[in-house]
Structures are given as structure tokens and as C-alpha cells.
Amino acid sequence: MKGPIARATVRTSAVLGLRLLVQTGTLLLVSRLLGPRQYGAFAGVASLAVTLGALSSFGMPLVVLGEMSRDPARRGSVLAYAVPTTVLFGGALLALYLLVCGTVLSRTGIATATLAAIGLTEIVLQPLFALPAAEHHALGRIARAQLLNLLPLVLRLLAALSVFLAQPAHALDVYAAGYLAASLVALAIAAITLPAPWPGWRQWRLPRPGELGNAGGYAALNLTSASPAELDKTLAARLLPLPDAGLYSAGARIIGAATLPVIAMLLSASPRLFREGLQPSSRTLRLLAWMSAAALAYSLALAAALWFAAPAFPWVFGARYQGIDRVIRWLCPAIPGLALRRTMGSILMTMGKPWMRVGFELAGLAVLASAAILFAGRLGNPGMPLALACAEWSMALLGAALVYVHVVRRHVPRR
To answer: What is the DSSP letter of 195?
Structure first.
């Protein structure tokens, strides 16, 4: 049933296109406001917060998505333990985040209050915000879910614009306060506009061992799927001079945002794949092949387009970002690997094999860290793009092998 999924992909791509515009606007405002050195520091600590935030919900948004995709009546019983689990894990990981930033990333020189604002936003508030979005997604309201996800990004853009126009002396500190306020307002709006309220605190409970075990795979999945897109910027802030880390982080954000149509396709297909994952038909297998081919074709075209467009980026980002054109060209080989890695990971997750996705992404993270340590010191600016390309392609190829062996070959009709 490619038709409905293709139409949903177009609708979701339109919403994600708005997200791309919002993220691009925020990236340009914040990077110009802070300059390469301070932006490199901010990107490093914010990426660490996003990585830990992927773990702090302990996979509960995906649990909500999976349970409500099968039976919407399960909403209340799942949220009764999803909300408190997110709050408890988020609080513990926020403390860990502040400890790591104060030791391993102390060279960034960012104030503790600013780190706390960034950490609270990404490690507690955003994981809570993911729960109502997962509810809409499970009910097939893909575009609505993405519009909801867009809300805090729009508010961050407004915060960035306000700080950019005001040009305060301590711009990063002021922006971090706006960053936090944006997520607080977005979470309040999401809660108010839900068709039914969340269970009250008297109905909260801790997950049972079986429920925790089920969520554990998704928690590891969230962590490993977010880390390849974020850990590289934290490594850059630790291994590169901060101005070079700023150039790399800005370039990496560009290629990540440009692959949003692939994400739209995967989001549109996921409810059907969740339903058919345990017993895939020949039509399901054809859909997997179509998705993989579409992701590869789009990413190759995107890499070529960014290669030729690279000379325009120093003008877009401003005079302080001279050299970002070379960074973007060095990042182009990673783009097809990134798109295929996301596709293979989504297939394994929705087809009931989340631990396989965790396995190949953990292997990719090991490649990323090893290659970054090896290349960044020796090659300078090209080192981090080369490390990212090695990691993305290793994950894409290993993920494709796992999909073929454990999904396609097992279920292909025998002649």
C-alpha cells in the first residue's frame, strides 16, 4: 500500500519542511549571535543534553506509540507509568549531565545556570513533551504529531530572534533562559490541547518488571538512535579547537536537517509496520525495498546538491564562518550513510527487532568515538567529518545486513 504511505509522506514532508525552515532560522540566528567559538561550546553541551534526554524517558514515547497503535484504549494504563518514569529518570540524568559538563566539558566555560537551563529543557521537558506527540502519531495523525513537535522549535526561533535583535552582553545566558521558557510554554499548550488529560499523580505508578523490560529495549534504542546525530558535536567540542568545533557543528546541523524527507517517509510508514511487524507479508517486504531505494536516491541527490551549493554557506553564516563550505563538502559522503542508517534502524524497530538496531548503532558509536579520537588530532577539521562518514556507513551496512538476514530472508515466500 504505497499510495496511502506516499500521500502521508507528502503531508508529513510539508510539516517537516516547516520544521526545516524553523531549524534553519534558529541555526543561523544562534550561530551568528554566538560566533564559531561560543557556538561550538553551546553545540557540544546541548548535544550531550539531547543524548541524555533520549534516555531519560526510558523509551516511554515508543511504548505509547506501540501500545496505542494496537489498541487506543490502552492510553490511560500506559501513561500512568510513562509520565512518572520520565520524571524520575530525567531528574537523575540531569544531575549526571551537570557533573559531566563541569568536568569533561569544563573547557567550554559555560555558566552552571546556563547548563542547568539547557539540561532541564532537553533531559526533562522535551521527553515529557514527546508523550502527547506519540499519542497523535499512534492514532495515525502523523502531520498533527509533527506540528506539535514543531511548537517548541517555533518558540525557540522566537527566543533566538529576540536575543539576536537585543544583542545582550551575555547572549548565550539569555538565550538559554529563552530556550527553557520555550519548552515550558510548549509543554503547557500540549497538555491543555490533549483530547483527554493525563492521569493524575494519584494514579501514577512505577512500571512493573515486564513493562520495564519492554521499555528497556526502546530506551536503549532511543539512546543509540539519537547519539550518532549528537555525540559527534560533543566530541568536536572536546577534541577540536572551539572555533573549529563551531564550524563542524553548524555543518553537521545542515546535513541533518536536510534529510527530513527521509524521516517523514519513515514516520508515515511506522504505524503500518508496527501492525504488520510480527507477520510481514510479501507486500510488506516490497514496501521495505521501496523505502530503502527512496532513501538512497534522495540522499545521493541531496549530497550532490549540497556539494555544489557549499560556496554559498560562508555568505549565509557570515564572515566569522569562513571555511564552513569545506566542512560541508567533507560531510557530503556521510549523507547517504545517514539516510540508510535511519531507514534500516526504523525497519528493525517497527518489525519487532529493536535490540538489533541497538546493536548496530552501538557498534557505530564505537566507530565514531574511535575514528574521532584518531582523526581529529591528526587531520584537524576534516577529521570529524571523516569519522562521521565512517560511523554512518558502518551502521548503514550492518543494519542492511541485519534487515536482510532477519527480516527479508526469513519471510520471503519460498518458490
So the answer is: S
pLDDT digits (tens, 9 = 90+) for 236-252: 999 999 999 999 999 99
pLDDT category of residue 397 using cuts at 50, 70 and 90: very high
Contact, 227 vs 367, CB < 8 A?
no
Q: How far is CA 260 from CA 21, 92, 254, 281, 317, in A?
A: 11, 31, 11, 28, 21
Sequence-separated contacts (24+) of 280-288 with Cβ below 8 Å: 280/351, 280/407, 280/411, 282/412, 282/413, 283/1, 284/411, 285/407, 285/408, 285/411, 285/412, 287/1, 287/2, 287/5, 288/347, 288/403, 288/407, 288/408
Q: Which pLDDT score, from 0 to 100, does residue 379 have?
A: 85
Residue 2 predicted with pLDDT over 50: no
In this structure, of 50-54, 64-68, 104-108, 119-123, the range with the lowest mean pLDDT score is 64-68
Which pLDDT score, from 0 to 100, does residue 1 have? 43
- What's the chain's average pLDDT? 84
DSSP letters spanning 261-307 = HHHHHHHHHHHHHHHHTTS--HHHHHHHHHHHHHHHHHHHHHHHHHH
Whether the Cβ atoms of residue 135 and residue 195 lie closer than 8 Å to each other:
no
Return the exposure string of 164-175: e unless at least 16 CB atoms fall within 10 Å of the residue's CB, then b. eeeeeeebbebb
pLDDT at 69: 66
Helix (H, G, I), strand (E, B) or coil at 104: coil
Q: How far apart are CA 392 and CA 367, in angstroms?
A: 9
Q: Are the C-beta atoms of 236 and 376 separated by less than 8 Å?
A: yes
Q: How many CB atoms lie within 10 A of CB 100?
A: 17
> Given this model, what pLDDT does residue 13 score?
60
- Asked if 92 and 119 touch (Cβ cutoff 8 Å), the reply is no
> Cell for 269?
510508514
Mean pLDDT, to the nearest integer, of 94-103? 94
Helices within 310-353 (DSSP H only): 313-317, 324-331, 334-350
Q: How far is CA 131 from CA 60, 82, 148, 267, in A?
A: 7, 8, 11, 15
Band of residue 278 on the pLDDT scale cut at 50, 70, 90: low
188: left (phi over 0), alpha (psi -120 to 50) or beta: alpha
